[in-house]
Design brief:
The protein has 573 residues and is an alpha+beta fold. Helices cover 71% and strands 6% of the residues. A 5-stranded mixed beta sheet has the order 1-2-3-5-4, with helices on one face. The chain starts with a helix and ends with a strand.
């Protein structure tokens, strides 16, 4: 290890010689034209994408993103960003897709092709829809409507808005849009689009209890879809029929549930299969209930693993590319500086050369030392994270699944109370799986950090828990170290998870403020509280305490049975 007291004076000498010998910086660097390379890489990526090799396609699209000039070659840049976001979206990585697609937004104004802007807005709206941000989902479809594009794109954007309103259970508003759409010739001439709108109209009528119109439109849609024979569209029709007949004719409803599951299985659409399975489980009993429950649990487990691997893979591709690019820029910068230094110091004496070479050697040694230490810390962090995840999966998720299977085997599931308990257990398993996924996602620490932190905190806001945040946007997070940002994110996440698991709080408040070059965070909830001398609980907060101490911060916990839970955090910036 290089002692700082030796390195710093030598480094100052090196800087002095550089500035004393350099009268001006070289400013005549000629930008490289990368358009030919961009076109070549896009062709390779497109070929992989067409052959469903999305990991390779994502890799080459990401290479394009780093060498493409977003201002002089905006079309290729935005198109590439759209393709990357679409790949992540198809793997259900909606947060990752959103993070990718927003990189295109600053350059929309340079586009000459409106359809690329339309694709960007619609892709972003779909991500918001799948993360339940309906307000922004509608907003970006409305932005798409303002563009001068083909009429079918405007109709598609209107259809998207109607679908979002359906998700918000605003069926009357949604119905008005759908009814207007089926009067358009472009819709009528497209059987797939026309059948989709008819099916949604029928479902909206069903939800507002106009059963006569509902069955009429559902039948019209099904008739068209049976001719087209598209498994996904048939599955959607069948599942709407199942919901329509669920109360009036359970046998017929069950038939449509099974038909829907069969169609979605043909194309291996996991999300829709899970929806169909959930309906089947709700309307099954005994061995049939057990059979479908096991299928449901296994399907949830398998898709979680597959999607998590895909998310990690895409995140790694982006991270590795950025790292390589940064290192290449550093190497080019060092090379230019060295050449300039040699040119301007050719008449200096041998002592100057020795000092410069020695200083450069120290810098290189320090660089490789810091790189090696950083890699070691990353490996240790990865190992600890994997160990923690494995422990959670074994201690929590696996035990819950075993308990649920045992419950299904030993209880009479024809009894409503037992059936309801099984569904509750399955829902708890799903929630726990989703929580583990959220706890281990990559944390963004750029200018979007405030938004990401807000989204994470807001995710704990439920009908039974009112959560408020004050002062978050008053802090300039971009001036705070990346490690500190990640630490605060994880600490707040840990506190909120503990709140959700243990406190049953109905009110949670998190306040941020700065004072004397320190950031202060006050967390409080009105939950059950706990005796701070409780050893088990202190162990639960061990990670929180260690994280705060690692950033040279202070933490104070105040709680008691029936007195809620309060945490005071202070750290320098």
């Amino acid at each position: 290890m290089i002692p700082q007291r030796i390195f710093i004076p030598l480094y100052i000498i090196f800087i002095f010689f550089i500035f004393s010998s350099c009268q001006k910086k070289a400013s005549n660097l000629v930008p490289i034209n990368t358009k030919a390379e961009v076109v070549k890489l896009i062709s390779i990526a497109d070929l992989f994408n067409e052959n469903k090799k999305t990991d390779s396609a994502f890799f080459y699209y990401n290479k394009v993103k780093f060498i493409c000039n977003p201002i002089t070659d905006t079309e290729n840049y935005v198109s590439t960003i759209n393709d990357m976001a679409a790949i992540q979206q198809n793997h259900a990585d909606f947060i990752g897709s959103e993070s990718t697609i927003i990189e295109a937004l600053p350059y929309i104004k340079y586009l000459k092709t409106p359809k690329l802007a339309w694709n960007t807005y619609v892709t972003l709206s779909f991500n918001y829809l799948n993360t339940y941000d309906y307000k922004n989902a509608i907003l970006y479809n409305q932005k798409a409507l303002t563009l001068k594009t083909e009429s079918w794109r405007n109709l598609a954007a209107k259809n998207n808005i109607a679908v979002i309103l359906m998700e918000e259970e605003k069926y009357t508003e949604s119905l008005k849009i759908f009814l207007a759409l089926i009067t358009k010739q472009e819709v009528k001439s497209d059987d797939e689009f026309y059948a989709k709108v008819l099916d949604n109209i029928g479902f909206c009528y069903f939800k507002i209890n106009d059963l006569k119109n509902a069955i009429s439109y559902l039948n019209q849609s099904l008739k068209i879809r049976q001719k087209e024979k598209r498994p996904f569209d048939l599955g959607k029709s069948y599942i709407h029929f199942a919901k329509f007949y669920k109360k009036s004719n359970s046998a017929l409803a069950k038939k449509y549930m099974l038909l829907s599951y069969k169609q979605f299985s043909i194309i291996n659409n996991v999300d829709e299969r899970l929806c169909a399975l959930k309906l089947i489980i709700e309307n099954s009993s005994n061995q049939e209930l057990k059979k479908h429950s096991i299928i449901y649990v296994n399907l949830v487990d398998s898709i979680f693993e597959v999607r998590q691997k895909a998310k990690n893979q895409f995140a790694k591709i982006k991270y590795d590319s950025k790292k390589d690019r940064d290192e290449n820029l550093k190497l080019k910068t060092h090379k230019a500086e060295n050449e300039l230094q040699l040119e301007r110091q050719k008449n200096r004496n041998i002592i100057s050369y020795i000092i410069i070479v020695f200083s450069l050697s120290l810098i290189l040694v320090l660089y490789f030392y810091l790189t090696s230490r950083g890699n070691k810390e990353k490996i240790e962090a990865t190992y600890n994270s994997e160990t923690r995840i494995a422990k959670k999966l074994h201690d929590e998720l696996a035990n819950d699944i075993y308990h649920t299977m045992a419950f299904a085997e030993n209880k009479n599931l024809s009894i409503p109370e037992n059936r309801e308990q099984l569904l509750t257990n399955l829902d708890a398993i799903y929630s726990r799986t989703r929580d583990i996924s959220k706890e281990n996602t990559t944390i963004i620490t750029d200018e979007n950090y405030v938004w990401v932190l807000t989204e994470m905190i807001a995710g704990f806001n439920t009908p039974n828990t009112n959560l408020t945040i004050n002062g978050l946007d008053t802090i300039i997070w971009t001036t705070i170290e990346e490690n500190t940002q990640i630490t605060i994110y994880r600490v707040l996440q840990e506190l909120l998870v503990n709140m959700k698991k243990h406190s049953s709080a109905s009110l949670v408040e998190i306040n941020f403020k700065t004072l004397n070059k320190n950031i202060i965070i006050n967390y409080s909830d009105n939950g059950y509280g706990i005796d701070i001398n409780d050893i088990a609980f202190k162990n639960g907060l061990h990670n929180v305490e260690n994280r705060i101490l690692s950033i040279k911060g202070e933490i104070d916990i105040d709680s008691g049975p029936g007195k809620g839970f309060k945490v005071f955090i202070k750290f320098p910036f």
